UniProtKB/TrEMBL annotation:
Domain Sulfotransferase per the UniProt entry, residue ranges: 35-280
The entry's keywords: Catecholamine metabolism, Cytoplasm, Transferase
Lineage of the organism: Eukaryota, Metazoa, Chordata, Craniata, Vertebrata
Species of the source: Albula glossodonta (roundjaw bonefish)
Name of the protein described by the UniProt record: Sulfotransferase
InterPro entries (alphabetical): P-loop_NTPase (IPR027417), Sulfotransferase_dom (IPR000863)
Amino acid sequence: MSRLNVTETFHQITFPGHLHTQDSLRYAMDFQFQDTDTLIVTYPKSGTTWMQQVLTLLFSRGDPTLSHSIPNWARAPWLEQYYCPDVLKASLGPRIITTHLPYSLLAPALQGSKAKVIYVARNPKDVAVSYYHFHKMANFLPQAGCFGEFLDKFLDGTLHYGSWFDHVKGWTSQGRDKLNFFYITYEEMWQDMRGSIERISTFMQCPLLAEELNNVQRHCSFSCMKENAMVNYTQIPDEIMDHSKGSFMRKGKIGDWKTIFTEEQNCMFDQVFEAEMQSSKLNFIWEPPKDHGPVKSLKSPMAMEKPILTAA
């Protein structure tokens, strides 16, 4: 299945036809979750691959065999992509499932479920930059154009997978109160990987020994994942993902948006962010500290006092 130039529109959101069909999207909406399932939820380029790796290593208690022998999309398939049913039929044990779908589409399927839901968010300026670079190498996504044009589409919510604002608000303002839900940010994982793994293992009710924790931390580091062919997407043919135009595992940093945003674009972004997120309690970290010490949380323009952590 190639369909590289096909766009599927589903509930007024566009999706790349290379991976999605009307049938696969309806399958996701009607999916029967098991109470033992773990669902990773992200907007694209927000730490999806990272969390897939963490959970794989957590379930294997730090043994890297699976994470170095099975591609991440086979270990933790995307629910809305066409191949997911076949992967899940062949899976053994507790299932890890991934999705980029908004809460509004998956809420009916998750209603009453005890499945664990892990939502990973990332500051949207870095998301926009990472997504822009991904568009430049992914031949199944529309051409990125210049960054200014791309940023306008990001802020308008007209890119594939819809609005970042609707996505993060939907899951964190509605899903967290109704689901077995855990919220963590890309930036938290970046600044304290070990502490983040410990929090995730507690939520998953999967305590680790010190040696196991060390192994999980080692094999889900950015440098390790960048060299892992089961994670870095180098197995994908160039006709689908042109590796000459960039690397899937690009930088993995906080604050990369500052290398491309103009002052005018930054001001425009902040205005839209303030308007869209005025009722949100979320905090975001926009850049690392200059002294390379512990990262301090910089409140989003209209954030409330306390960030959401977990709601089980």
